[in-house]
Design goal:
Length: 83
Amino acid sequence: MDLLGVFGHVRKALSFFGGGAASDESWATDEAAFEQHFGVPYEAFEEIVTHLSREQENLLHATLEVNPEAAVLWILSMEEIES
């Protein structure tokens, strides 16, 4: 899943509709800015995403469309549950 690409599309859509895609959201297209903004490398985020269930992936995509930063924070707040 190319989430930085998804972030870029979301950012463009938000700016087209006058929404919250400001120039300070460079974290959506730049891995170094992502790490600076969220305090973790993009690779850590990607690793968590690989463990999502189908329902969680669907929720992630839906959340990315309306609030990309909240979607990232939701993923980063997840903890792995041992079964």
